[in-house]
Amino acid sequence: MSSMDLERLKMTGAGRAMAVLTSGGDAQGMNAAVRAVTRMGIYVGAQVYLIYEGYQGLVDGGDNIKLAHWHSVTNIIQQGGTVIGSARCKTFPTREGRLAAAFNLVKKGITNLCVCGGDGSLTGANVFRSEWSSLLEELVEKGRITDTLAKQHDHLNIVGLVGSIDNDFCGTDMTIGADSALHRIMEIIDAIMTTAQSHQRTFVLEVMGRHCGYLALVSALASGADWLLIPESPPQEGWEDRMCSRLESRTKGSRLNIIIVAEGAIDRSGKPISSTYVKDVTIMLVNHCSSNLTGESHLTPYAIFHFSSKLGVEAVIALMEASPGTPACVIGLSGNHPVRLPLMECVEMTKLVQKAMNEKRFDEAVKLRGGSFENNWNIYKLLAFQKPSQSESNFSLAVLNVGAPAAGMNSAARSAVRLALAQGHKVYAVNDGYQGLANGAVFEMEWHSVAGWTGQGGSLLGTKRTLPNKHMEKIVETISKFNISALLVIGGFEAYEGVLQLFEARSRYDELCIPMCVIPATISNNVPGTDFSLGADTAVNAAMEGCDKIKQSASGTKRRVFVVETMGGFCGYLATSTGIAVGADAAYIFEDPFNIHDLKTNVEHLSEKMKKDIQRGLILRNEKCHENYTTDFIHKLYSSEGKGIFDCRVNVLGHLQQGGAPSPFDRNFGTKLGVRAIQWISERFQENFRQGRVFTNSPDTACVLGLNRKVIKFTPVAELKAVTDFEHRMPKVQWWYNLRPMLKMLAKYQTSFCEYVPGEIEHVTRRSISIDSGF
């Protein structure tokens, strides 16, 4: 979108009225979406109304429909639920209810409506839109509005945002609230693990998902659960005996067993399988096993995934660009970008899933859930039911961590080790990265060596930043000594740069002519060849939680501004993403140059806001954003210039962002990347095995395994060299940079949207949903 397009948007928005409502169940992230819709609407010159209590408020009208101002949505981004309320409405599904709703909107001049809810709420919105003309005609006939007023409001534009913790809406990779629900589930699993291990117990955990097993599936994959029951793929007859047999065999090598049951789990005949029944079965059939039942129920959501703000901004742009002939659309997430999806295509595809389940076409139901769901299910089965191979292959591989510790490293190592062992490969672990490889710190891994690794943060293998260049002779010696046929390197920029050095040394050492794969893992998210690195999501959540607590500490005090330093090296991803997630007033990063005049403008802008209704301000600074404008300098500048208006405090988040348990995304993503890496390495083994050894020197056998938009792909390190800024240790072009205008707009800066990339229209077909997004 060019800046001229933004001016056109402002001209389009000027004088127009729009409204936003939340409907159905509440979902964490709804408030972030409401805030973004409200502020973007005001930014483009529209009048924005908040509709309280969902469709019920729309039908009742009156004080339930209120004109919003910029500060109406201040300090709501971190709150759970929905501050504008959501109520079940029996009236809106009737013609009389929709007639009342239309009257209330026309009275306010509203012809643009953003609805945040599930498929039922969005379907209702589409019905409302399709009947709009006839509803206005009826209002004219009854004398409730004039014919002139009806002509002035002759069409209604609808845009939907999907709010559902179940992630059960086809077309979008992730619904608002799903990530937060996963955080809560993983918190519970992590909490019960110590108890289960202490007493050698089996825990049965029931999670929400009446018609969709997404939460159960991803939490099972992320925790390494021993048994899983979901509605899309009921177990075969006699599953009780097979489950208990597996649990009994597991108790010989593990003190912990976890069974996860979706609340909508059924057997092949459609009969519900309750968590209570599963508990009773385990107690009755498993020897020396006590079973505890834990319910997830309706829990307060945990984290706000910053994409809610992106979706909210895109919803306003879609409304402003809509014409009478534009079909109702939903703003979804495709990879890491917002897209516009035809509403009824999504709804019809979602209905096909339930239809397939009702007709007991369960394989079809799994496919219709989408490529990500199907791949998650296949990987869960692969890891849950595999055993170490009894026959050895001719191949061995070494797994090592390189760079700073990052959440998700252990998940990737666990899945890689187990799949490699299941395929008969010998697996070596290397302590302390390339330096450990040079020193011969190598030991053989067994199946139970990685038990319980999924939920642990940091690097259990040990990691260092040392690059291989100075130790090449010793590394080659170790590879030869242990007859290592491939390297799997899990780590950050040093992991990538190290493999590049090893690749370039192939011409001197035949021992390095083996497959090498890098799984990016760093909180900085600065590895070329991928949009997301393991650890970055956990780091954003940790930084966001820290910022929320910092702001909360000033509750009830005088006006205060916090200057918070984030990690990330020269890469500003962490500061930018955290800034969007917490509603920061500014985020200073290296990629977006600034000078003293910019700092002065920011201070003056914040001072004006603090003179009015704002009580707290938040300034983020990436640790290496500027050589001279340090965190201390910015703190002193804000303190001095804001004197008499606000006081200022400084906080350095530091290594807080590295520690803690991995987020569900990092556990799941790491598990999937570990599996995919071993599959790729095994393929290279078969292709390049000759004369008793693996030998390959082609560029496509030394790769970074990354997620690019929606595609998990292998990119040769030799190819990535040209797009890498080695001085600042990051890619030359970064996808997230176009989020910067949104961050500034939401902080009330007049900014150009020339870098903003608007969502494209994507049709929802079986082919489009078959792609695995990585989530």
What is the strand and helix layout of this fold?
Layout (H helix, E strand, L loop, with lengths): L2 H11 L3 E6 L7 H14 L3 E5 L2 H7 L4 E3 L27 H14 L1 E8 L1 H12 L1 H10 L5 H6 L4 E6 L15 H22 L2 E6 L6 H10 L3 E3 L9 H13 L5 E6 L12 H11 L5 E5 L11 H15 L7 E6 L2 E6 H16 L3 H7 L2 H14 L11 E7 L6 H14 L3 E5 L2 H7 L2 E3 L18 E2 L7 H10 L4 E6 L1 H12 L11 E5 L15 H17 L7 E7 L6 H10 L3 E3 L7 H15 L5 E7 L8 H11 L5 E6 L11 H24 L1 E2 L2 E2 L7 E7 L2 E6 H4 L3 E2 L4 E2 L8 H7 L19 H4 L6
Parallel strand pairs: 1-2, 1-4, 4-5, 5-10, 6-8, 6-9, 7-8, 12-13, 12-15, 12-16, 16-17, 17-24, 18-20, 18-21, 19-20
Antiparallel strand pairs: 2-3, 10-11, 13-14, 22-23, 24-25, 26-27
Helix pairs in contact: 2-12, 3-4, 4-6, 5-13, 8-9, 9-15, 9-24, 10-11, 13-14, 16-24, 17-18, 20-21, 22-23
InterPro entries: 6-Pfructokinase_euk, ATP_PFK, Phosphofructokinase_CS, Phosphofructokinase_dom, PKF_sf
EC number: 2.7.1.11
Cofactor: Mg(2+)
Brief sketch in words of this structure:
Keywords: Acetylation, Allosteric enzyme, ATP-binding, Cytoplasm, Glycolysis, Glycoprotein, Kinase, Magnesium, Metal-binding, Nucleotide-binding, Phosphoprotein, Transferase. Its main location: cytoplasm. With 775 residues, the chain is of the alpha/beta class.
Characterize the structure shown.
- Strands 12, 13, 14, 15, 16, 17, 24 and 25 form an eight-stranded mixed β-sheet that branches.
- The protein contains 27 helices and 27 strands.
- Strand 12 (396-402), helix 16 (409-422) and strand 13 form a beta-alpha-beta unit.
- The chain has 775 residues and is an alpha/beta fold.
- The model is unreliable at 296-305 (pLDDT under 50).
- Its EC number is 2.7.1.11.
- This is 6-phosphofructokinase.
- It is found in: Cytoplasm.
- One of its GO terms (molecular function) is metal ion binding.
- Pfam families: PFK.
